[in-house]
Structures are given as structure tokens and as C-alpha cells.
Design goal:
Elements lengths: L5 E3 L12 E2 L3 H8 L3 E2 L25 E6 L11 E12 L2 E11 L8 E3 H4 L6 E4 L4 E3 L15 H13 L3 E2 L7 E3 L2 E10 L7 E5 L7 E8 L6
Parallel strand pairs: 5-14
Antiparallel strand pairs: 1-3, 1-9, 2-14, 4-5, 5-6, 6-12, 7-11, 8-9, 8-13, 10-12, 13-14
Length: 225
Amino acid sequence: MRARTIVTLAALSVTFLAGCTGSGDAETDAGPAAAGTTDEGGAGEAAPAADDPGTARAAQDVMAEQSTSTPHGGGDAWGGEVTIALRAVEVAGSTMTVRWTVGWSDDEAPDDAGASYYDMGLQPVTTVTDRENLKAYRPFCTEGAWQPENLDGPDAAVAQQACRASMTVSPLENIFFKFPNHGTVESWAVLPAPEGQPEKVDVAPVEGLPMFTDATVTYLDGDSQ
């Protein structure tokens, strides 16, 4: 059975802003959207066969952009700031593709320096939240599951870690990909299509960076409500 990776949210304790804008700092905004438990468990599955989401559509527009001071994690402690720009939330058939860019810039660091998610203490876990229907979605994975069936304790944690390590996200190197100083990297994640075809969703492209609220969903098959 496909793990739909749908999270039911009992409550959301953040203040949402009108329009597709950021909702504050990284520590408070990234957490609530990822809270809750999944409706379905089981082994994770890859997204249904489709064109490479990284090249299927060359998104050029930017819905919203936010910058934050570079957070510090377990690696090199760089300064400067991280800029994240949400490009698009696109639904085609049973999949939803979120596209964004990540840029890192530190004038005090060498030009050939790089900062990874690990360095910044971030997780490349994308969460899309449909506030109206109190559901949240996470990327497909090829191993493990966001909420394993018939598992608890250490076994469940291992399954969730395996799911994080095999998510359909780019950059594929996950937490160790080095974002170049003064550079911008195109990124994407593939998730299950949202139920009920919502017109707006909240998007946290990276766990630990600011959330974007009221992002417009584009239905590529023209079946939006």
C-alpha cells in the first residue's frame, strides 16, 4: 500500500500572513507544519513515474523570497545569510512538485567556500500544509515510512530515518550538498497531490528555514477548483 504521507494536524499555533509571504523566523515557523502523525503508514514508495521534476518545467517566476541569518549546525560555522525563494507548487495527476531556490552568501568567507544543510543544522524535508482541511504532506520516499505500520520505539525511528534518507528531493546529496558562496541552487521535492484540490497551501521547503504562507497551487491538468 502506498504511504500517502499525509499528516493530520489537530491545531496550528502560528500566525499566518495574507498572501504568499514568510511568517517569521526559522525556529518558530518550520516546526508546527511538520507536527502530527500520518494517516497511513507502511513502506515508503517513490513517486509515480513522471518526467524528471528537475527539468520538466523551467520555472522562472518567484512567488516569494525570504532571507535569514545563516543558522549553525554540526559542521563549519559560517556567517552571512541564507535566501530561499519559492518558485512554484505544481500538481499533475497524483504528484505535487514544489520548486524553490536556496542561496548562501557570506562576504567574510572565501569565495570558494560552501555551506551544507548539515553545516547549518537544517533538514531538507519539505512540508506542504493545507490549513483548511488540516492536512500536511511530505515527500515520497523509497525506503522506510514517515509513519510505519505495526512499529514503535527504535524500529519506528529507524524506518523514519530511512525515509528521510531516500526522499524524492533535490539536491540529491541531501544534508551534505555544499551550497556555494554567493551562489543560488535550484531545488525541488515531489510529494503526493493534495486531497480536495486546495487553491492555497503553506510551504516549508526546508525544515528549519522560514515558511511561506498562502502559496498558490498550479494544477497543470487544468482541474483546479
